[in-house]
């Protein structure tokens, strides 16, 4: 009987400690957590002329039906004195410390240059592997092009984002490269490289810049058995 009473007392003690522990873990938290909803006004990708001033297109935030835009914190790494790709990050935290975030890409470039800036993969683009059927791109990936020191242009990914953005392999699997663009719009490949695989393009053919359509197109050959038929449309800022 004594042992049974000791067992019951111990069980009650453990149960009490369990409730106490739960109370401490939930201390300071509301019973229902509402997350903020962040909405960016304007485009997710914007351009700024080099030497100019970045003006944010705006944003708004709501939480449980209430406007909390004033609580949004904004940070960026933009330097409009240097060409490049920058980002603006927006964040708002709810009462329980959970953050909602959004981001915008900012391209600083010479916006008067017909080629320099941001481009998006056209739905007509595709890849052919080992002479098989064409496969379309999985999204409207963004490619950047900047004038280089040699008078040509540096391209962020000649493969149009297929592996970097589409397959999610990351920037090491983008084919960075340099191209020349002749007065008649003919595009020729200068060099290329894929850091992740340590190789480069086999060839680039039928390269063309169509100034009237703001479009670039070419066939890129890679790894002996892969062909990328790339069409890029310039993003207007």
- Spatial sequence of strands, sheet with the most strands: 8-11-12-13-14-15-16-17
Please state the average pLDDT score. 90
Helix content class: 10-25%
Total helices: the number is 2
Nearest-angstrom radius of gyration? Answer: 27 Å
Distance between the termini: 85 Å
What kind of sheet is the major sheet?
8 strands, antiparallel, barrel
Low-confidence runs of at least 5 consecutive residues: 1-26
| Structural class assignment | mainly beta
Order of helices and strands: HEEEEEEEEEEEEHEEEEE
CATH architecture of the largest domain: Beta Barrel
Q: How many domains in all?
A: 2
Beta-strand percent range: 35-45%
Structure characterization notes:
The chain is mainly beta and 237 residues long. The protein folds into two domains: 37-109, Immunoglobulin-like (Sandwich), CATH 2.60.40; 117-234, Lipocalin, CATH 2.40.128. Helices cover 12% and strands 43% of the residues. It is built from two helices and 17 strands. The strands form three sheets. The protein has an eight-stranded antiparallel β-barrel. The chain is globular and about 60 Å long.
Relevant terms:
Immunoglobulin-like; eight-stranded antiparallel barrel; 237 residues; four-stranded mixed beta sheet; mainly beta; Lipocalin; disordered N terminus
């Amino acid at each position: 009987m004594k042992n049974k009473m000791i067992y019951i007392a111990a069980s009650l003690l453990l149960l009490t400690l369990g409730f106490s522990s739960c109370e401490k873990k939930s201390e300071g938290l509301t019973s229902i957590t509402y997350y903020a909803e962040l909405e960016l006004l304007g485009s997710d990708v914007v351009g700024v002329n080099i030497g100019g001033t970045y003006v944010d297109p705006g944003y708004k935030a709501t939480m449980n039906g209430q406007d909390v835009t004033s609580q949004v914190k904004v940070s960026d790494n933009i330097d409009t004195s240097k060409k490049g790709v920058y980002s603006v990050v927006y964040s708002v935290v709810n009462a329980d410390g959970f953050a909602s975030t959004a981001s915008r890409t900012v391209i600083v470039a010479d916006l008067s240059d017909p080629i320099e800036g941001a481009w998006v993969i056209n739905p007509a683009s595709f890849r052919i592997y080992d002479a098989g059927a064409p496969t379309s791109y999985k999204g409207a990936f963004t490619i950047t092009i900047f004038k280089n020191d040699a008078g040509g242009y540096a391209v962020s990914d000649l493969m149009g984002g297929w592996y970097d953005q589409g397959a999610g392999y990351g920037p090491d699997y983008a084919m960075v490269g340099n191209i020349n663009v002749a007065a008649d719009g003919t595009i020729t490949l200068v060099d290329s490289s894929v850091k992740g695989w340590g190789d480069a393009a086999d060839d680039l053919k039928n390269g063309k810049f169509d100034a009237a359509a703001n479009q670039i197109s070419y066939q890129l050959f890679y790894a002996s058995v892969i062909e990328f038929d790339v069409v890029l449309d310039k993003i207007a800022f």
